[in-house]
Amino acid sequence: MEINIDSLFPFEKALSETKEVFDLVDKNGKVVLLKDNRPVYIIMKYEESTRSDLTKHIPQKSLTLQEAMQAVLMETDNQMLHASVLADIIFERKLYTKKNGDKAQYNQIRARCGHYPEMFEALPGNYIRLK
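Above: the chain sequence. Below: its structure as tokens.
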């Protein structure tokens, strides 16, 4: 990241002169606040072009595994997929992850069918069908 020397501003001074800080942000696009001559904060001007960079760090509402299964199966032609393929799609699309961040395994997907028999049908060969 390139830092313009004109964008450096003392942190202590920023606490009392916030208008000057934001005037610099408007002028230079960003300000680096220094504490003990070391960068501690960056204040940047929001631009639509950086929106995607910002929003990818905002957590999305996570689905339950059965909600994720239902969402994926509804998009398939025959509303049926192999459990391992279903697990891969759910993980790739970040619809559901386990608490440790891992993907749900095919046997977990198959087990979820037993908990929600009104929603899913587990077929021979580990195929899952939406009812």
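Residues 65-130 form one domain.
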